[in-house]
Amino acid sequence: MPRPLAITDDQELLDDLLRIAAAAGVELDVAHAAAHARPYWIRAPLVVVGSDLADDLAATGPPPRQNVVVVTRTTDDPDMWRRCVAVGAHTVLELPEAERLLVEEFGDTAEPVTRAGTVLCVAGGKGGAGATVLAASLALTASRGGLRTLLVDADPLGGGIDVLLGQEDALGARWPDVVGREGRVSFAALQEALPTFGELTVLSAHRGEPVRIPREAMRVVLDAAQRGCDLVVVDLPRHVGEGEAEALARAAATIVVVPADLRGALAAAQTVTLLRPGTGDLRLVMRAGTLDPEVVAASLSVPCAGVLPETRGLVETVDRGDPPPLRRSPLGRFCGELLESLLGGLSQSGRSGRSSAGAGGP
User: Fold this and answer.
1) Which residues form the Rv3660c-like CheY-like N-terminal domain (predicted)?
2) Mutual angle of helices 11-23 and 99-110, in 10-degree steps
3) Which helix (H) or strand (E) holds 338?
């Protein structure tokens, strides 16, 4: 496989480039003179031109191509953009400030985007509304339908979504193993580290001391998942910290589960007020109660996406260590219809070329 090309004779700059490339998990071809770059110029997936050789490279008249960047360790050089245009680069990256951007550029050559993971967030309008059950059921339904799915437990006080799936003893990392992660990680590496069942990968909280999820850790996880998954379902707590805000900002839709009773509606009004500024598309999923679901939705000024069917024996099923019953059940049909309405044709396209993951998973 062709490797990114670095064109520089500045040893300090080259040391930086080699270190940054290693952080992205890639190796470089290196040209120490502009003339030496020609054999690699067209086939390299990315060309990184050091500011020291940019003028020399422009003088060789390289053919136009995409994915060329100029890197420099000098800030505010008024001549740098002229060099950028001269070599046909699309940007100038000043190190060390732009190291993260360069890691992303290198990483995209090692792991091209193969999916476009849609993020759905699920939150409870009040405690005990059933948001975690819905989040897990949506993820299970999607994965059994052939969509590569990541289920993210963002509620450190929820006891671990792996318990609800009956997989609390499954080997693999939980949030405490991930929170210190920075930079870039491939989805393949994330999937290998986390409990995975067929097309479903799970990142759960644990049952020790609660761990706050930093924005950077959530960003790393969601970046990887959006490159390698079809769907990401995030089970949110009823508060918004930095990590939760990162998930909300990426969500194609955020679902709030609301019991259709007076206390449920009042609590959900506060939850909606908290969530609305951070996400673009809010929907309600109602639990049947003493109030008309459409009246509750109108009072909250949020559209209702459906009424969650009651599942007889659900608590007993989960307490036995079994996941929510979905096959040929009202809950399973509801989740399938909700996913279809939110994702459109994604569920059908996700099945093409891949078998169903219903067997052997939770």
Assistant:
1) 7-113
2) 60
3) helix 330-343
Which residue carries 């599942």 as its tokens? 311
Phi, psi of 123, deg, nearest 5: -135, 155
Residue closest to 274 by CA, chosen among 259, 294, 254, 289 = 254
CB burial class (10 A; 0-12, 13-18, 19+) of residue 290?
exposed
The bridge status of strand 253-259 relative to strand 118-124 is parallel
List domains and CATH numbers for the chain: 5-110 (3.40.50.2300), 118-351 (3.40.50.300)
The DSSP secondary structure of 58-100, one letter per residue, reads HHT-PPP-SSEEEEESSSS-TTHHHHHHHTT-SEEEETTTTHH
Looking from the CA of 210 toward its CB, the CA atoms found within 13 Å total: 9
Q: CA 52, CA 351: separation in Å to the nearest integer? A: 50
Separation CA 168–CA 319 (nearest Å)? 12
Residue matched to tokens 């985007």? 113
Residue type, 126: K
| CA angle, 327 then 331 then 337, to 5° | 95
List, in order, residues 6 or more apart from 318 with CB less than 8 Å away.
133, 163, 164, 166, 324
- Euclidean distance between CA atoms 283 and 359, whole angstroms: 31
pLDDT under 70 in the chain at which residues?
A: 111-115, 183, 345-361
Bridge partners for 50 per DSSP = 71
CA distance 139 to 131: 12
Q: Rounded to the nearest 5°, which phi and psi values hold at 49?
A: -105, 120
Which of 266, 198, 268, 212 is CA-nearest to residue 241?
Answer: 212
3-class state of residue 128 by DSSP: coil
Q: What is the pTM of this model?
A: 0.73
- What are 304-322's pLDDT values in tens digits? 999 999 888 787 887 787 8
Which run of H or E residues covers position 141? helix 131-144
Q: Which two tokens stand for residue 362?
A: 């939770």
